[in-house]
Description:
The chain is an alpha+beta fold. A 3-stranded antiparallel sheet has the order 1-3-2, with helices on one face. α2 packs parallel to α4 and α3 packs across α4. The protein is globular. The mean pLDDT is 94.
Amino acid sequence: LHLLQEEPDRVARLQENVRVFCAALADGGVEAESETAIVPLIVGEERLAMKVAKELERQGVLVSAIRYPTVAKGSARLRVALSAAHTKEELRSAAARICATLGSFRLS
């Protein structure tokens, strides 16, 4: 709480980062919407979510694959956690990698 009082601009930076990241995903054809620093990307199939998360980690993008029983069967998702410390360049790069990876796995 002290940190937020001392640096209130962190919250504004985080909110802007969420907007930038979601817009970059949308530019790449991936629907994403969030009001918080956690951006869920619905994948559907559990195995696909695991494969995509593993490939993204190989590329240097850390996302969590969330699947049953944490979420309903067939609604597996990637969980992207953003911070105020991410740069716009990092966010756009990560979004581009996510879009490309999701696209390649969905086509195969």
